[in-house]
């Protein structure tokens, strides 16, 4: 201004870049940096080929994101001007100012870092990292040299983890190579990582090996609050993970995480976690029932399929189908669908139906009665399969259940090391669906009488099922087990409906005239009304007599 060379001066308000962390204005300064040249020796082309040919992207649209990111990315600036991190093991010749990135220096820096940590590069003098007689390859000077003070981009650190793990853990390297050759190496992160970890890992690995470091890349959504808003501490809708774990337990948090469709944005809040806790209790209670009724049972007590009761055989096929479905969903990385099947198996097939059907035999028959052993055989299969199916989500609970039965521990020391039970093809699953349909029709006919208090429980009901010839023949095979399946006092089947009748079942319900056995609580014609067996049915009398 004093020389009159400024036309005008003043303050203006305009858009200017600011630091995302401290919010201060950014001052630009041109400096020398270290780069990975992306197009050197076909690096970019090889990375794009790996994206297209070597990796399964889930969801498939995520492949487009990383393909465009790699196709458009500039050379990678690897250096950062920060006071913490992994130092770039380069030195500068003070005589000619040449930057030197020499293998002997790198190796000595790596050895020192392995022994003392990454700070050693900054704490020790440059001579600590120079081999004896080291000279500048550019000008031949014997020194002096100074260390590079920049650090590596942290994305280079994270992008190199696959290599670092293999280099320092031979046993993990072997497992990694087996997985890459015949299985899967999966990377799991959010959509921002197509320009971050997924990208940096690919760049490093392609540069070293020519191949991607992973076989599968899974892109999950964001975690939102219960109202669907992004969580921020400043908004007060942020849930601290440790607080959630302290309140609900790690099992609940893990179940919630796997029970969501990770491909989409997911919500979390107290109400949602409470529902997950309720689901967890149902699964845990199923484990408790199974273990409580298998205390006197081991695999040697099990019966082959052809000796199971017809009802048990039908449910065993349903169980096999459910297990096959869960395994398919896990293999497809559809964790939420696998857990949906698991919860449905526990709450509907087991707790609401089969366990109720089996209780009478489990509680009242002699320990070695074939009908009781039949039920226990199916419960044993269910325990084994449920433990393995629940293990990815309920890490502690599944192993706790496993450890509670000596026969399971004898098979394998932990559920997490166990193998799936060999399950035959689930032919005939429709039979259980058919039986459930009959049971539902009977319960629907009984419910009005329960509502009007004409019946206290279904056990007081005698049912007469009118149906078609085909259905009657099908039910005839279950004649001896129909009362136990329907949990009624008596059941008869009559083929009185013409073929094609909809719904195909007409159920008439009456209250039984039979007395109630004081031991098994079933209503039977053979309950004694006098003598020492008074109040007991013939079945319970025989069981008690055998015990004497």
TrEMBL record:
Domain Zinc finger FPG/IleRS-type: 516-541
Aminoacyl-tRNA synthetase class Ia domain residues: 27-268
Top-level taxonomic group: Bacteria
Gene Ontology molecular function: any one: isoleucine-tRNA ligase activity
Protein keywords: Aminoacyl-tRNA synthetase, ATP-binding, Ligase, Nucleotide-binding, Protein biosynthesis
Domain Methionyl/Valyl/Leucyl/Isoleucyl-tRNA synthetase anticodon-binding: 312-465
CDD domains the UniProt entry points to: Anticodon_Ia_Ile_BEm (cd07960)
Catalytic activity: tRNA(Ile) + L-isoleucine + ATP = L-isoleucyl-tRNA(Ile) + AMP + diphosphate
GO CC terms in record: cytosol
EC numbers: 6.1.1.5
Example GO BP: isoleucyl-tRNA aminoacylation
Function, in words: Catalyzes the attachment of isoleucine to tRNA(Ile). As IleRS can inadvertently accommodate and process structurally similar amino acids such as valine, to avoid such errors it has two additional distinct tRNA(Ile)-dependent editing activities. One activity is designated as 'pretransfer' editing and involves the hydrolysis of activated Val-AMP. The other activity is designated 'posttransfer' editing and involves deacylation of mischarged Val-tRNA(Ile).
Family that this chain belongs to: Belongs to the class-I aminoacyl-tRNA synthetase family. IleS type 1 subfamily.
PANTHER family, A to Z: ISOLEUCINE--TRNA LIGASE, MITOCHONDRIAL (PTHR42765:SF1), SOLEUCYL-TRNA SYNTHETASE (PTHR42765)
Name listed for the protein in its UniProt record: Isoleucine--tRNA ligase
Chain's gene name: ileS
